Amino acid sequence: MSAFIKLSLGQMGQRVILFACRIITFVCLTSPVYAQNTSITLLTEENQQKIELAVWKYAVDTPLLLKTIGWFRELTQHSRESAAFAELSRLHFMHAQLERNKSHRIQLFENCVAIADRALALNENDVRGLFWKAAAIGKMAEDSGMVNALRLLGPMENLLLRVVALDEKYENAGAHRALGRIYHKLPGFPISFGSNQKALMHLKRAHELFPRDVITHAFYAELLYDEGRKDEARKHADFVLATPIAEEDALEFAEYVDIALGVINKTGGSKFKVGNN
Asked: Do residues 195 and 235 touch, judged by C-beta distance below 8 A?
């Protein structure tokens, strides 16, 4: 749902590559999601509302999330609807984020990928399936060590680029945000495929599409600061700290608040307190 994913190669390797893999935690959970064109859909308005509520409250009401997963898993048991499996992968992704045991967490994210693959087997262009597969791969890379991270980052980039091509607005321009963060945080050629020029392109577009998205503001602020555009960076960071944050979003947004605070501390300190409802 946005320094997710300078030294010699030997010094930079593990720290920069693994940190870059954290980019996918940037998921913004308020975007509308639409069912595929089909005469019979599991994603009725009522069912979608149940999913959205469980996703929004995943960090403060785990029993609701687990109940929703069980309910929707039963509904999809004999389904041929790609979007339904993609939404099930999304629900499992939220659950996996709460797991503290690393080996079990990796298994849960692998399950997210497997469910997303079921969606993509039915429709290779299912935007939700592509996005949540990329999100789970990013989390697996974060937990799997540098060698696996390097192996997984390329496929993750390709999945996100397909999301941009198919529906750049999905998840508050989540693919643009994620690509911007990856390109910003990865080293450039010949070590990897990082590029601040590409990062600026994607984060600028994400901001154009959703100018009030907190995650985009945080990622954009840090990139602009690193590019020497300190006044612009400060405006984006101030926006993050001035935005009220609901209790349900506190865990999800903590990382982005910290990013904004880092920029603010480097540009003269803050006149704001972190917003909350």
From this structure: no
